[in-house]
Design a protein that fits this description.
Elements (H helix, E strand, L loop, with lengths): L2 E3 L12 E4 L4 E4 L8 E6 L5 H4 L2 H11 L4 E7 L11 H11 L5 E3 L4 H6 L3 E2 L1 E6 L4 E5 L15 H11 L7 E3 L2 E4 L5
Parallel strand pairs: 4-5, 5-6, 9-10
Antiparallel strand pairs: 1-11, 2-3, 2-6, 4-8, 7-11, 8-9
Length: about 180
């Protein structure tokens, strides 16, 4: 495990990709999941201890906000030849086991990770409507080694502001976790 920090850039618009949704076993378009309020894109994977640390909160976030019109998409971009635990079969097992209520996409060609500039897992991108990125970074301050309770504070604050019509200038709050396992 290599501790890696997310980039500090906010420069992108929400873009459509067609990736394998491991739960259905079919390629699906991101645009089918975009929200008119906000879309949260989460780069996660199965093997990362930083992601395992926040599993329960990912499920809670979706439970708390899906019915309020917030969309969630999880993406795993890791090289499964080197990290078979992150394979689509194992992704589906994790999704079923944890009760993910959002799509869990496999980014086999790593195009989505490159477009978004994702560098680590977990790493969050929040888009207002179907427009520009307004948040890039961490879920909250909790990490497996620091004893801080997982609350989803940073992501929840952005979502609440959006739901309450509060204008948000782009925010970067760097995340860190395992590096994305790039293909060579």
């Amino acid at each position: 495990m290599v501790r890696t920090y997310s980039s500090n850039e906010i420069r992108i618009k929400l873009k459509n990709f067609k990736l394998l949704d491991v739960c259905s076993g079919k390629k699906k378009s991101f645009k089918d999941f975009f929200s008119d309020i906000a879309t949260v894109i989460m780069f996660i994977c199965n093997h990362c201890p930083y992601v395992k640390h926040i599993h329960t909160e990912l499920v809670s976030l979706a439970k708390d906000y899906l019915d309020k019109g917030i969309s969630f998409l999880a993406i795993n971009s890791n090289d499964v030849d080197k990290y078979p635990e992150d394979s689509p079969v194992n992704m589906k097992k994790i999704s079923d086991q944890l009760g993910f209520t959002f799509p869990y996409f496999f980014d086999d060609e790593q195009k989505a990770a490159k477009y978004f500039g994702a560098k680590c897992t977990p790493e969050f991108f929040i888009f207002h409507k179907k427009d520009y990125l307004i948040y890039h970074g961490q879920l909250d301050d909790s990490r497996p080694e620091n004893g801080i309770k997982v609350t989803g504070y940073d992501v929840r604050q952005i979502i609440e502001k959006l739901l309450n019509g509060i204008k948000i200038d782009p925010i970067i709050k760097p995340s860190y976790g395992c590096n994305i396992k790039w293909k060579t």
